[in-house]
Amino acid sequence: MSFVATKKLTAFDWVNYSLLVFISLVCIFPFIYVFSVSFTDPEVYVPLKFYFFPDQWSLAAYKYLLSTNSFLNSLQNTVFITLIGTVLNIIVSFTFAYALTKKTMPGRNIMLSAVIFTLVFNAGIVPGYILIKQLGLINSLWSLIWPSLTNAWSLIVIKSFFESLPAELEDSAKIDGCSDLGVFLKIVLPLSMPAVAAFTLFFAVSYWNTYFNALIYLSDSKKWTLQVLIKTLVIDSDSNGVGQAGAGGDARAVPQETIRMASIMLAMVPILLVYPFLQKHFAKGVMLGSVKG
After folding, report:
1. Domain boundaries, position 196
2. What is the dihedral of CA 147, 152, 153, 154, to 10 degrees?
3. What is the CATH number of the domain that holds 203?
4. With contact defined as beta carbons under 8 Å apart, do 61 and 38 qualify?
5. Does residue 205 fall inside a structural domain?
6. How far apart are CA 198 and CA 89, in angstroms?
């Protein structure tokens, strides 16, 4: 019979665990409040009251939001820039980073120096706005996509990941008659799925949370992203910012606070649902056993 020795908790351990539990509760309580208020029936809602669970469940706030043209337009705009922007970001970042790993590529050192330069120095807001204006992208959703197709940090990280892949895999593929594009698509990219999944999540979250650039480049409220509309609801305390409701929607029957909390929930849920599907790809165990000596 074997006995497993258990470590006796010290006073420091109790203080440490208690502090961690307290910090966790402080972080969780706002989410509980937002969730509960958003599902609280307008008829029983009491302002400034903390809700662990709704006294009476209702989807009135969600029905109102999803019946307004402004909210649906902002949701559509956000989904568009997130899907298109993420796909283009992945294509540009991974192809560019793969090219930078080839020492025989003409102009490689110049391009790599330019990438590192942008990592250290930033042109600023005014030159960026002038560039977008001269390109004719003001009040266009593409103004939120084209300037952000890649960034220096992502390129350097992806480049380092590609350089960690065994060169023997590419050499063997080329011996079998595979072209450079074929090597990238059939060998390198499948082995890079952990990096693809991780950066897909990074890019998607970045586009989904687009706020500052949208605030600068988009003056037409019909082109607003979801985050700009939520700012109007939460910060400016203007529930009329969602516009007129469709059939069956009545803003007067729904408290402003429940509308705000419902909008926050609708902005959080999509990313929370995507994350579990990409989490399993974060481990780099896909490379184990790919090369045998």
Report:
1. 76-213
2. 70
3. 1.10.3720.10
4. yes
5. yes
6. 13
66 occurs within a structural domain: no
Number of domains comprising the chain: 1
pLDDT in tens, 46-87: 776 776 777 788 888 888 888 888 889 999 999 999 999 999
Q: Is residue 105 part of a domain?
A: yes
- Nearest Cα to 201, choosing from 193, 212, 190? 193
- In terms of Cα–Cα distance, which of 189, 197, 188, 207 is closest to 148? 207
C-alpha to C-alpha distance for 180 and 188, rounded to whole angstroms: 10
pLDDT digits 0-9 by tens, 239-293? 555 654 443 445 556 678 888 888 888 888 888 887 777 666 655 433 433 444 4
- The answer to whether position 139 is within a domain reads yes
Q: Are 99 and 105 in contact (CB under 8 A)?
A: yes
Partners of 40 in the β-ladder? 57
Beta bridge partners of 245: 68
Q: Give the best-scoring range by mean pLDDT among 76-80, 170-174, 227-231, 287-291.
A: 76-80
Q: Which residues of 49-63 are buried (b: 16+ CB within 10 A; e: fewer)?
A: eebeebeeebebbbe
